[in-house]
Design a protein that fits this description.
Length: about 325
């Protein structure tokens, strides 16, 4: 009787172990397909509607080669930052700058990015972009780009993924090694647009098709909390902060019905730190011919925007009126 009971217990344990092994292998197979299969399959499995880009790894390498000398201006934010701020413009003014924008970077992602940079955050001023739509997404896209190609984020990877509350982040977390290989393999596709110190340049114009824009549908409360944490972090480091919204194509704002309400909520957080959002869409209109798509300026657009940005910052006394060898007077 005892022997029969033991055999039954053994079979139960063996079946549980077998089930565990099969579940593990099946999960691994699904994760692989979800992360590396055709986009249609990814969307069916996890709603994974974006592809990682090789930009962040290149940005980190550029940053590692530059940060020790310090920056007068460090630009942080999404691809709007990445595609708008050419350090060569500021070089001509004697201003040391770096463009640390990454695709779809939300305040949540910015917070973990600042945490990972730690003492390397060697900047006098930070220009922080706040695109209202990115306050209504999880941050999974940016997490996968950042974690998959920036080794320093590994220490906070699990916390970063958990903070997004998005299953896509955990897929990226579980397949980091595969993603690094994919980044390396695909990096040649963007080589011709990787300019310098984080800045990417589009080589051509593309028509603005607003139907391709997908508004965020999450509550902004969580991202607003992380935005507050970002400003708190910069304040503790005694880094002066400038908050901006870069130019957007005509009609895009109409695709975001809560645009002005969202900016008002963002401004409420800014006011706690004596800051305000500078929305360049309210300062000057940019013709559609100056955009690569509905979100990003093309080369001609950047050439128009940067002098406007600089003059507006001088008018607001957000930047020093003169520099000597890159150091503000």
């Amino acid at each position: 009787m005892v022997s029969k009971q033991r055999n039954t217990e053994f079979r139960i344990i063996a079946n549980l172990l077998l089930f565990g092994v099969v579940a593990f292998l099946l999960s691994g197979a699904l994760l692989f397909v979800a992360a590396n299969g055709p986009s249609s399959v990814r969307k069916i499995l996890v709603g994974y509607g974006f592809d990682p880009m090789p930009c962040p790894g290149w940005v980190q390498r550029e940053f590692e080669a530059s940060y020790k000398d310090g920056f007068d201006l460090l630009f942080l934010g999404s691809s709007h930052i990445q595609r708008s701020f050419d350090p060569r413009f500021f070089d001509a003014l004697g201003i040391k700058s770096f463009t640390f924008g990454t695709p779809a970077q939300t305040p949540l992602n910015t917070y973990f990015l600042l945490e990972s940079l730690d003492e390397k955050l060697n900047a006098k001023r930070v220009v922080l972009e706040v695109f209202p739509n990115l306050f209504k997404v999880s941050g999974a896209e940016s997490f996968i780009d950042l974690y998959g190609s920036m080794p320093e984020l590994a220490t906070s990877g699990l916390r970063h993924a958990w903070a997004t509350r998005d299953k896509r982040s955990f897929i990226g977390l579980g397949l980091k090694e595969l993603r690094v290989a994919n980044f390396v393999a695909s990096s040649s596709s963007l080589v011709d647009s990787q300019i310098t110190r984080g800045y990417l340049d589009f080589k051509h114009s593309r028509s603005t098709d607003f139907s391709q824009f997908v508004p965020g549908d999450l509550d902004a409360t969580e991202q607003l909390k992380y935005f507050d944490k970002v400003l708190q972090t910069l304040q503790k480091r005694a880094i002066k902060t400038i908050i901006i919204i870069t130019p957007l194509a005509n009609g895009l704002i109409e695709c975001m019905p809560d645009y002005h309400t969202d900016i008002a909520e963002i401004n409420k957080v800014c006011e706690r730190y004596g800051l305000e959002v500078v929305d360049f869409n309210r300062i000057e209109q940019f013709d559609d011919s100056l955009f690569w798509d509905v979100n990003h300026l093309n080369k001609r657009g950047v050439e128009k925007f940067l002098p406007l940005f600089y003059s507006e910052m001088l008018r607001r006394q957000s930047l020093p009126s003169s520099y000597d060898d890159g150091h503000p007077q």
